[in-house]
Design goal:
Elements lengths: L12 H14 L2 H14 L4 H14 L2 H14 L4 H13 L3 H14 L4 H10 L6 H14 L4 H13 L3 H14 L4 H13 L3 H14 L4 H13 L3 H14 L4 H13 L3 H7 L17 E4 L9 E5 L4 H7 L4 H5 L3 E6 L4 H4 L7 E4 L8 E6 L3 H5 L28 E6 L9 H4 L7 H4 L4 E5 L18 E2 L7 H8 L4 E5 L2 H9 L3 E5 L20 E5 L7 H12 L7
Parallel strand pairs: 1-5, 2-3, 2-5, 3-4, 6-7, 6-9, 7-8, 9-10, 10-11
Helix pairs in contact: 1-2, 2-3, 3-4, 4-5, 5-6, 5-7, 6-7, 7-8, 7-9, 8-9, 9-10, 10-11, 11-12, 11-13, 12-13, 13-14, 13-15, 14-15, 15-16, 17-24
């Protein structure tokens, strides 16, 4: 800006603008922005000067300044389609999709076939869970610009996000006809092949993408996900490491790498990397600050630390064992947990004062910490994790009379359908029919939610013992404690049974959640748990056959 913020004389403007244009073309964005800014202040009613300020600020990466300048241009020329398109593009760079959509739609009211406005509209609808609108926008873009790579990419994004891998494959292939060897289209083609289950074709596409552009982070990230599907966790970690090295600010890459590192058994590095979860789209829980300061694991002198649950019910049960870390370091623990868990967790002397979220108002503590971060502070390895919490004065088991030679076995076959990988961890009740064929087994339904509807059409409904719906986990604990054995998929019921010390068989996917690690039949978290893993077929039938065989030989009280 001019010295003392004094606008330049109008007679100086032509030379300054010529100089600004030359600097802009030469890539000296900072000096060009200064000159354009001076000109815009000298002629504040000139909308084109404000648009120039916005363009250079955008090149410089100053998105807030670009947004302010294009807003000034639009005040002066509210129907200029070029300005509206620029406003939409700036909003996309700022990841403000509602603002980008509004500006793009305004541009299209003035210029209905403006190709960049159509592209920006399609991009603004990406990830908004509005597949019909995104489909329409990407189709319009393709009609107006059938051979435009950006338009084809909009179609690829729509197809990928709406679970249309065949459409994504076609759009990516058309993009490669326009831009042969383009790393982005190759990477997206690989992702589409992977969704169709053709891992070999996906691997070829990713490798071609990386041959074309070895530093293309999305291809390394996709390759890491492919190796995960193939159960090659070491290779997945290496690929994710490269993605993070190339794009260190991408929280989704960091989060996925954390999960793979944890699955490999490297807890120190994995839990440290997991702190990136708060910037990842995969983290659906909002950050909270129910304490004055974030606890960093320091020694305490009686200060209170409020631990707040941040994931699912099973995660809270699983990580409740780390509450004792606060006591061990001289503090007073409080726990802000889901209301379904409150009555049960209050019976543990290790959880401190338990507040039911939405029902109790916890006081402002000296410190606070999200629950999953406690494991990082504890610094344990897979060989040294602490045992589950203990309970006092648990209610009497619901199942208290035992029939000789009859086993009471609990069944839970499905988790929360909103879980991002529920399709991998849950199964249909009917698949458990081989267990019902065993004469010495009484099957108790320990299941909640919409999966209970499967009982009505189940071929062995008459073999199931159906109990009243439990209101919370304290009642569920009373039911589970009366079992000889709990058989469950990877869901909260497994953590509950394991925490209670009930023998538990957990049925897990070929590539499971990180906490079950790889290639183990035991659990480092629950001494009384046994893991039954899918083989490379990724089907449940072989798992259930092994469970049925072992259950036919199971003796009460024998591990």
């Amino acid at each position: 800006m001019a010295s003392g913020n004094t606008p330049p004389k109008h007679s100086d403007l032509p030379a300054k603008l010529d100089r600004a244009l030359a600097l802009h073309g030469a890539g000296d964005f900072a000096e060009a922005l200064t000159l354009y800014d001076e000109a815009a202040l000298a002629l504040p009613g000139n909308h084109r000067l404000w648009a120039a300020v916005a363009a250079v600020a955008l090149d410089l990466g100053d998105l807030d300044r670009a947004r302010t300048a294009i807003g000034r241009a639009l005040v002066l020329a509210p129907s200029d389609p070029a300005f509206l398109v620029n406003a939409s593009g700036i909003a996309l760079r700022r990841d403000d999709k509602p603002e980008a959509e509004t500006a793009a739609r305004r541009a299209l009211t003035v210029a209905p076939l403006h190709p960049t406005a159509l592209n920006n509209l399609a991009r603004s609808l990406s990830g908004t869970n509005r597949p019909a609108a995104q489909d329409q926008a990407s189709r319009r873009t393709g009609v107006v610009q059938p051979g435009d790579p950006v338009a084809l990419m909009a179609r690829v994004l729509w197809a990928s996000e709406t679970g249309e891998p065949f459409a994504a494959t076609r759009a990516a292939a058309r993009g490669l006809c326009v831009l042969p060897g383009d790393p982005t289209f190759l990477s997206n083609l690989g992702a589409a092949w992977a969704e169709q289950g053709d891992n070999k074709a996906a691997l070829r596409a990713y490798r071609q993408s990386l041959i074309s552009a070895p530093g293309f982070a999305p291809a390394w990230y996709n390759l890491g996900n492919l190796f995960e599907r193939e159960a090659d966790i070491a290779a997945s970690v290496r690929a994710h490491d490269r993605a993070v090295l190339l794009a260190p600010h991408n929280a989704d890459y960091q989060f996925n790498r954390a999960l793979m590192v944890l699955l490999s058994g490297d807890f120190a590095r994995g839990f440290a990397a997991l702190e990136h979860r708060w910037r990842s789209k995969a983290q659906t829980t909002a950050w909270r600050e129910p304490g004055r300061d974030l606890w960093d694991g320091r020694r305490l002198n009686g200060e209170t630390v409020l631990v707040w649950a941040e994931q699912g019910l099973g995660d809270t049960l699983h990580f409740s064992r780390y509450m004792r870390l606060i006591t061990e370091r001289g503090g007073t623990p409080h726990l802000d947990a889901q209301p379904e868990l409150g009555p049960l967790l209050r019976l543990s002397p290790e959880t401190g004062t338990v507040f039911a979220r939405g029902e109790d108002a916890p006081p402002i503590a000296d410190y606070h910490i999200p629950m999953m971060s406690l494991a990082r502070l504890a610094g344990h390895s897979p060989d040294s994790v602490p045992p589950p919490i203990s309970f006092q004065d648990l209610p009497a088991p619901w199942i208290h009379s035992k029939t000789p030679d009859m086993l009471d076995v609990g069944l839970a076959w499905a988790g929360n359908p909103k879980h991002r990988r529920d399709h991998e961890r849950s199964m249909r009740l009917e698949l458990l029919a081989p267990l019902a064929a065993l004469a010495n087994v009484r099957l108790h339904v320990i299941q909640h939610g919409e999966a209970l509807e499967q009982i009505e059409t189940c071929s062995f409904k008459d073999r199931l013992v159906i109990h009243p719906i439990t209101r919370d986990f304290l009642e569920t604990a009373a039911l589970v404690r009366g079992l000889d054995l709990m058989i469950t998929v990877d869901t909260a019921n497994g953590h509950l049974a394991g925490t209670l010390g009930v023998e538990t068989w957990i049925l897990i996917a070929h590539v499971p959640d990180w906490r079950w690690l790889m290639h183990r039949s035991d659990s480092i978290w629950y001494p009384d748990a046994r893991l039954y893993r899918q083989d490379r077929s990724r089907t449940w039938e072989p798992v259930i056959a092994r469970v049925a065989r072992d259950l036919s030989q199971f003796k009460r009280g024998l591990k």
